[in-house]
Amino acid sequence: VTGRIIDGAGDLVRDALIEVWQANSNGIYRHVEDPKFGELEKDFRGWGRAWTNFETGKWSFQTVKPGPIKDRDGVVHAPHLNIWIVARGINIGLSTRIYFVDETDANAKDPVLNMILPEQRRQTLLAKYRDEKLKTNDYVVDIALQGDHETVFLNT
Question: Would you state the pLDDT for residue 82?
């Protein structure tokens, strides 16, 4: 997953830190409270950090695509990445999720996505294929801190 962070003036944020937390491809988090914690791959860390490149403003993560997860109430959530962003000028870290464009059915049932209104704002959380013709697990999503296409941020 690759992207950029854009400020309210449309400029690239070149000094941001992005932290990602995610489940593995089977929907298991590296957390002792996950009932399937013991089934994790030995080398799956479940989180990572990246910085925006000062010259290009881009950030990227190379990881496995997460599977759907069940929350504490047994509700299924679509595959997603949990993202936390900090940068100069941001007083508190910003939390959001990144979903995947090819998970149409799962996204339509996701309880977090379904809370977002108006509905078109949900698009700000969708990672799209980098190459629409190839449709590989190579995704791109930009995060807008403010403005007309502001990314939806979540209270955590």
Answer: 98
Q: Distances from the Cα of 94 to the Cαs of 5, 87, 138, in angstroms?
A: 12, 9, 24
- Round to whole Å and give the CA distance between 1 and 61: 5
CA-to-CA dists, residue 151 to 3, 125, 145, 148, angstroms: 13, 7, 6, 9
Q: How far apart are CA 60 and CA 139, in angstroms?
A: 10
pTM (global) more than 0.85: yes
